[in-house]
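Section 5.1 Outputs to date
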Amino acid sequence: MPKAVWQTQELAQDPHARSDKAAKVRDMFASIAGAYDLNNRVHSFGLDQRWRREAVRMSEVRLGETVVDVACGTGDLTELFATSGAAKVTGIDFTAPMLDIARVKSAANGTKASPNATPLTSNPAGLARVAPVYVEGDAMALDLPDACADVVTIAFGLRNVSEPLKALREFRRILRPGGRLVVLEFDEPRNGFIRAMNRLYTHRIMPWTASLLARDRSGAYRYLPRSVETFLNRDRLRAAVLESGFAEVDQKELTFGTCILTRGRVAKA
């Protein structure tokens, strides 16, 4: 049985302020990797893949472009980009067990007929699938050259980074002129009633059922709602993206404001 990673008293404080946050997050995700996809589907009521498809749409991938998906986890978003028209797709994560699952998933997807890409992009149907490359790496220090990507994405991962602003600046560094950053993150709904219901679910119900499903003792599903509650809200995230050097930022609310898509654009040359 996996050891506890997050103690109750630690989560009573701000988990983002801890000096050992990176190590704890890595251990936590290694612990839940095997049940990660199942818990995502069950506890988002299947909406998590819809949110990721919307992230692909918002990235506006053009034929032949390069996509880097940071904090890719088990590769759900990375795999969606495989038939977006991109010429090169790279998934980066710092938890090896998650990447192992992503590679298995990618190999299985490679044996299937390419899906119709029309719902995700403006590209024609029948695009050949590009096999994503999965590598271990740190969002704050990407082993990639300057201006090498057209699209950078990070889904439900920015709040797990030790220094989000440093990561955002790193994303800006690797983007070409005209490039797009798309951040998909949880947020707290602004409607009072919906916010209260969402908190009841994420703080009381989901931690218990998700931990049971994953047979998890790491505290991962108690960390999740606390990490959202103490992270940048949509307005502060927008300000952080602008501060990181992006020329313009727009946002889209998903599912009553429980998720926010934030897109930053790099100024054209």
